[in-house]
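#onboarding

Welcome to the new folks! Below is a worked example of what a typical request in this channel looks like: someone posts a single protein sequence, and someone else replies with the predicted structure as tokens. Don't worry about understanding the tokens yet, we'll cover that in week two.

Example request:
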Amino acid sequence: MLLYSGDPAARHQSLERYRDKKARRFNNSTKVRYEMRKVNADKRPRIKGRFVKPEELQTYLKSMPEDLS
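Example response:
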């Protein structure tokens, strides 16, 4: 199945444009765009990485054994 029936040079140029755009898009992937969202997310309680309601957190903490050592 041939997906591109045009000129091989044009295909190469299109692929290069795609790769350049992709590199620019994911180059700053560690940058936090919305600082306030990160601050609020860091404040919220989590169990195994998932956000939980405070009541669920209390239930989870009560079900855990006292001595984890």
